[in-house]
Every structure is written in structure tokens, then in C-alpha cells.
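Translate structure to sequence.
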């Protein structure tokens, strides 16, 4: 009996540790937010990269620790959404506001619309298809802002682009989840790794970067957008 109780305590401790690990993404998001307010965008992206790493591995750890069984009083999926809203939306929107790229009044209105719409998107129970694709643009503003800062456009054009992507969150299109979608998983992983390298090179050079790194960012974007058109639907998809 004592051995069984000890195993139960160890499993609960492991499950709680995974929840704490997921929640640590909020702390990383706060550090990123502070750098966004200070307009130190390379450092902001550094903290966001750490938060993205946590977001990328916590699901696997949660399944290994069987958190739904051993620590069911915390909702891991809800916790993940709370952290993601901070790191995917609030931090990059703050950086956009601080960047000076947007015209004051139209820019503020655009960001307020974007933030409100993103909150609705994160609460949408239909966010993912049965085969793990995202329905609509998945509100990855932390990724899109790299392109915004690396390839600056006139303010009004940028407002229109941001509003277009905001609308795309609710369009009947799909975007790949690189960690969960099985189709073309190896190629998608390779392109994703290339994107990470190119993004790191551009960010480390204060959002300038060599031409090949910038070209890599554009090529990766084209690949991920093309996947939406090439997706093969499963039988009886919930779309």
C-alpha cells in the first residue's frame, strides 16, 4: 500500500510540474511584454522564442505525465490558451503599437479590432479540424510581426493587411499545425526549422538580416500558405 501511495504522489507531482511548466509561459510573456514596451524587439523575440519552446513541448509532456488523470483540477488546454493569448496576441500587438509603423488613430483602431477578434478566435470551439488543422488564420501574430518589422510597409497598407488577416481568422480556410498534422510532416518540419534559423538571423541583426535570410522567411511563408490549398481532407472531416 505504501509503495502504491508513493507512486500516486509521484505521478501527481509530475502532472503538477507539467502544469507549472505550461504556466511559466505567462512569465516569459510578461518579460517579452516589458521588452516590447521598451521597443527592444530583438530581446522581445528572444523571450517569445522561449515561450514558443514551452508551448511546443508541454503537450507531449502532458500526455507522458497523463495530467488529465493525475491533476484533473487544472485544465491544461484552457491554461495553454491563456498563455498563448498573451504571447501570440498581446505581446506582438503591443510591439506593433510601439513600433511607430502605424498611423496613430487608424492604427489604434486596427489593433483594438485585432485584439477583440483574436479573443473570440481563441474562444471558438471550432478552432481545429478533426485532423488537427487550424480553421482560419490561427492568430499567430507573434510570427506575422516578424514579417511586419522585417519588411516594413506604409502605415495605411499595413493596417489593411492586419485587418485582412483578422478577417481570415473566421474564413472557411485551413492553416497547418506543424506539430500535429501528419500530412507532409517531415517536409513541414524541415521548412519550419529553416524558418527558425532565418528568423533568428534576421532578428539578431535588429530585424534587418542578410538577403538570403529574408528570402528564406518569404519562401517559408509561401510554403505554409500553399499547404492550405494542398490539404487532403480526411474521410468525414469535421469542417
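Result:
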Amino acid at each position: 500500500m505504501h509503495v502504491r501511495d508513493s507512486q500516486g504522489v509521484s505521478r501527481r507531482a509530475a502532472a503538477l510540474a507539467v502544469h507549472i511548466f505550461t504556466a511559466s509561459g505567462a512569465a516569459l510573456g510578461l518579460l517579452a511584454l516589458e521588452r516590447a514596451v521598451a521597443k527592444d524587439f530583438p530581446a522581445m523575440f528572444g523571450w517569445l522564442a522561449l515561450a514558443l519552446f514551452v508551448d511546443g513541448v508541454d503537450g507531449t509532456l502532458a500526455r507522458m505525465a497523463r495530467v488529465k488523470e493525475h491533476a484533473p483540477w487544472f485544465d491544461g488546454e484552457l491554461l495553454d490558451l491563456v498563455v498563448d493569448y498573451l504571447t501570440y496576441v498581446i505581446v506582438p500587438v503591443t510591439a506593433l503599437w510601439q513600433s511607430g509603423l502605424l498611423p496613430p488613430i487608424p492604427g489604434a483602431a486596427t489593433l483594438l479590432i485585432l485584439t477583440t477578434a483574436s479573443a473570440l478566435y481563441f474562444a471558438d470551439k471550432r478552432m481545429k479540424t478533426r485532423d488537427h488543422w487550424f480553421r482560419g488564420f490561427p492568430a499567430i501574430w507573434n510570427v506575422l510581426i516578424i514579417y511586419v518589422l522585417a519588411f516594413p510597409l506604409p502605415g495605411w497598407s499595413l493596417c489593411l493587411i492586419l485587418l485582412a488577416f483578422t478577417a481570415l481568422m473566421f474564413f472557411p480556410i485551413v492553416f497547418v499545425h506543424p506539430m500535429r498534422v501528419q500530412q507532409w510532416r517531415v517536409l513541414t518540419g524541415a521548412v519550419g526549422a529553416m524558418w527558425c534559423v532565418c528568423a533568428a538571423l534576421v532578428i539578431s541583426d535588429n530585424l534587418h538580416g542578410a538577403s538570403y535570410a529574408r528570402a528564406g522567411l518569404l519562401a517559408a511563408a509561401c510554403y505554409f500558405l500553399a499547404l492550405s490549398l494542398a490539404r487532403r481532407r480526411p474521410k468525414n472531416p469535421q469542417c
